[in-house]
Write a structure and sequence with these properties.
It holds the Pfam family DUF1036. It comes from Pseudaminobacter soli (ex Li et al. 2025). By secondary structure, the protein is an alpha+beta fold. It has 2 domains: about 30 residues; about 120 residues, Immunoglobulin-like. Helices cover about 15% and strands about 45% of the residues. A hairpin with a 5-residue loop joins β5 and β6.
């Protein structure tokens, strides 16, 4: 009888352990796509990147993210809350840039700036950002490349990263 009781007790513990471990395993190995805004640097140089977006409190620009050659960085973690995002990037070695027609504020050092008007009067610089319409996707990826675009400028492409 003792043997049967011990065997029954072992089975009960094994069942409890199984029920605790299996859900943790499936959560840990889940391959769900992560939602975020990523920038990939497909060049051979270090690139500095700034991003602009509309928050609940108004326009915000943030930077600088330093992205090494042939790597990616996440600028905004989690599902995107805006449809439009704006990007400005500079090649720190060759001096080129990826820009656009939308003027926003930047600074020499790390920054998070509220508002996009009167940049110079407020002690910042003004830079032209390129607009990305994410179509309200949960995540987005922009790839910076050396390839010239049709207008002769460096190409910047954005895609839904799911």
């Amino acid at each position: 009888m003792r043997f049967a009781g011990a065997l029954s007790m072992r089975s009960a513990w094994a069942t409890v352990l199984f029920l605790l471990v299996v859900p943790v395993f499936f959560v840990a190995t889940s391959s769900d796509a992560r939602a975020d805004f990523r920038v990939c640097n497909a060049t051979q140089n270090l690139v500095g990147v700034g991003i602009g977006y509309r928050a609940k409190t108004g326009w915000v620009t943030e930077g600088w993210w330093h992205i090494e050659a042939s790597t990616c960085k996440t600028l905004i973690e989690g599902p995107l809350s805006s449809r439009f995002y704006y990007l400005y990037a500079e090649d720190s070695e060759r001096g080129g840039r990826w820009d656009g027609p939308i003027n926003m504020c930047v600074a020499d050092k790390e920054f998070k700036i509220a508002g996009v008007t009167d940049c110079v009067a407020r002690g910042f610089q003004r830079a032209g950002f390129k607009e990305y319409d994410t179509g309200e996707q949960a995540s987005w990826m922009v790839q910076l490349t050396d390839e010239p675009a049709t207008d002769g400028t460096a190409a910047v492409t954005g895609t839904n990263s799911q």
